[in-house]
Structures are given as C-alpha cells and as structure tokens.
C-alpha cells in the first residue's frame, strides 16, 4: 500500500513538472515571438537609444541590451534559467549520492532510510523549483510580467541622455528668455496683460516624429493649430504620455477621464472607438494610448475655440471654458477695460493666478514651436 502511495505521489509530481516545463518554455517562446514582432513593426531605435552591456554575461543576458521596459524581466529570466540549471545539477548529484549510499548500505536499515530521505528531498526540491512558475501564475499571472515605467530623457550639462525612444527628448532651456505673469503685469497698460507680447521660449521638449504626426493629423482634422497642441502637451506633461497629475488628469495632454468621456460621447468620429465600448474613457486608456489623448484634446479645443483668441483657448484648457466665476472666460470686475477676462487682470485675476502663469507658458511655447 505504501509503495502504491509513493508511486502516485511520483506520478503526480512528474505530471506537474511536465506541465510547468511546457508552460515555462511555451510562454517564453510566445514572449520572444511577441518581442520579435514588436521589433519589426514598432518604431525603429534612434541613435540616442541607451544600451547596457553586462560585465559578466550569462544566459541570454549578453551583448548590447536596449534599456527599455523589459530589461528587468530579461535579467530575472536569465537568473531564473541559471538557478533552475544549478538546482538540477545539484539535485542530480544528491540523488546519485543517495543511490550510492543505498547500494553500499549492506542492508543497514538506518543507512537505507537516510539514503531514501536524501533522494526524496532532492526530487521534491527539484520539482518545487520547476513548479515555481506555475505557483506564481496561479497566485497572479501579472507576477510573471515584470515591466519598468518608461524613462524620460535626462538633460545634462554635456548633452542629453535619451533613455527611451518612445518618449520625447528634452533639451536645456535657453537662459534669459523666461517671462513670468508678474513681469507681464509690470509691462501692462491699464493693469491688463497683453499675451501677444510674450517672447518665444524653448520648453525643452522635442517631440518624436510619431507624436508630431499626431499633432498635425488631428490638428488638421479638427481645425486646431497643431503648434497649440504641442504647446499644451509641453506645458501639461512635458511630452510624457504616462504623466498623472495630483488632480487626476492623465496622459500626454493631461485630460480628466470625465472630460475625455464627455468629449468622446459627443464626437461621432471618436464615439465608435474600441476604448469607448463601455461608454467610458479611463485614465489607463489615456496613458496607454497617447494618440487617443491627442485626438480627444483636439476635439475638445475645436468644440470651444470659436470666437476666442489663442490666449483664451489656452486659458480655457486650463481653467474650463465656462463664463462663471473661476472659469477662464469669466469677465473681470476689477479691471475697467470692457470685455476684460478675469485671468488677464493684474488687479484681481478672480482666483486664476495659476491660469495667468499657464497661459504665459503655453503662449511662449507656442511662439517657439511656430517660429
């Protein structure tokens, strides 16, 4: 009876062992194929792509390895393969040693029992190591998908380090070109800011070709100046498609999910997108699909820009296009000039001091991009 139980245990463990091996290699083959397809269909690496060369290569983790969101996964996968191989060799040695002790025990019950324990311990340990993949998968499949967030470009005194080709590169802003809203107030007449006098300023964001294509495409489709979209993105997220603000705005254009949902719901060109199949646009969708973020932003501006000047459009994007108190299009009660927007009034901007600075920034960025 005990022998049959041991046979059943061995069969059970071996079946799980084979399932684990097939799942491990099957998933890694699929991953390798997915990466190969991504390399053939995705954006080509730029000359600024950073690579990492390990001093002591091992397994597949060797040569010039691109620093991307998968590098940690590749590193841990290589170590996993190394550990599994080392454990397999060690377990084989222990099993052989246990078998040798059994053969030389000469019928000694204590020696035979010790040999059996060693053999069983080695087999169980070996199976558990190979089962670790399945155990993690059963707990949570996401534990097997290890990715790093996209890394932004780091600007240094000796140039620029582009750590991910999927993000815009940044450059050092030119000194001496920054004007604050208070500077504009000092130079204003009648205490009203004239944003048409804002000097061009480099925001330090150089958008990649793909993003520039989105700005041009959706700018043309919705009748919105594409350089305004660039200026908004530079001011809102510094061109980072994965940005999240404390106020709950997401993505390249920093849109609230509630605003995005409302814009898509009324736009027949966007309403049938798969992202809107549930009637909602989530923050995750805005992050994962920066092109969608640009399209929604262009649609939002297009629906509100009629009859507005460029500064008013920027102000509305920041504070809302309403005319009530606290909104960008509200009228000033403190500046005497008729028709003065509250955010342009230096005496009392009606709680829109932040908007004053925002418009100053976006106007200066727009003037830079449109040069």
Automatic annotation (TrEMBL):
PROSITE patterns: TRANSGLYCOSYLASE
Protein family membership: Belongs to the transglycosylase Slt family.
InterPro entries, sorted: Lysozyme-like_dom_sf, T4SS_pilin, Transglyc_AS, Transglycosylase_SLT_dom_1
Membrane-spanning residues: 78-98, 119-139
Any GO MF annotation of the entry: peptidoglycan lytic transglycosylase activity
GO BP annotations, alphabetical order: peptidoglycan metabolic process
Protein name: Transglycosylase SLT domain-containing protein
Keywords, in A-Z order: Membrane, Transmembrane, Transmembrane helix
GO cellular component, one term: membrane
PANTHER family listed in its UniProt record: MEMBRANE-BOUND LYTIC MUREIN TRANSGLYCOSYLASE C, SOLUBLE LYTIC MUREIN TRANSGLYCOSYLASE-RELATED
Superkingdom of the organism of origin: Bacteria
Domain Transglycosylase SLT: 215-323
């Amino acid at each position: 009876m005990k022998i049959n139980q041991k046979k059943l245990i061995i069969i059970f463990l071996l079946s799980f062992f084979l399932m684990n091996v097939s799942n491990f290699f099957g998933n890694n083959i699929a991953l390798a194929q997915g990466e190969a397809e991504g390399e053939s269909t995705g954006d080509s690496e730029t000359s600024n792509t950073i690579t990492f060369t390990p001093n002591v290569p091992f397994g597949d983790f060797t040569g010039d390895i691109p620093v991307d969101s998968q590098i940690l996964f590749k590193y841990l996968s290589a170590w996993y393969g190394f550990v599994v191989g080392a454990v397999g060799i060690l377990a084989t040695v222990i099993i052989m040693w246990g078998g040798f002790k059994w053969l030389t025990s000469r019928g000694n019950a204590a020696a035979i029992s010790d040999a059996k324990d060693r053999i069983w311990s080695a087999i169980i340990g070996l199976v558990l190591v190979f089962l670790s993949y399945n155990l993690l998968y059963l707990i949570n499949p996401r534990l097997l998908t290890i990715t790093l967030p996209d890394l932004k470009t780091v600007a240094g005194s000796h140039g620029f380090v582009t750590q991910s080709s999927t993000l815009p590169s940044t450059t050092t802003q030119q000194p001496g070109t920054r004007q604050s809203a208070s500077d504009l107030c000092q130079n204003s007449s009648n205490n009203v800011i004239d944003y048409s006098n804002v000097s061009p300023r480099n925001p330090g964001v150089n958008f990649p070709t793909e993003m520039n294509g989105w700005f041009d495409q959706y700018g043309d489709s919705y009748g919105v100046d594409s350089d305004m979209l660039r200026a908004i993105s530079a001011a809102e997220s510094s061109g980072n498609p994965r940005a999240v603000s404390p106020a709950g705005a997401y993505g390249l254009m920093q849109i609230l999910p509630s605003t995005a949902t409302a814009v898509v719901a009324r736009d027949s060109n966007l309403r049938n997108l798969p992202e809107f199949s549930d009637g909602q646009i989530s923050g995750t969708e805005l992050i994962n699909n920066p092109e969608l973020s640009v399209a929604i932003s262009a649609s939002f501006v297009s629906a509100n820009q009629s009859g507005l000047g460029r500064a008013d459009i920027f102000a509305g994007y920041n504070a809302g296009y309403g005319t009530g108190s606290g909104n960008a299009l509200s009228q000033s009660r403190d500046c005497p000039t008729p028709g003065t927007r509250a955010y342009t009034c230096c005496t009392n901007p009606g709680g829109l001091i932040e908007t004053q600075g925002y418009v100053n920034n976006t106007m200066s960025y727009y003037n830079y991009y449109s040069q």
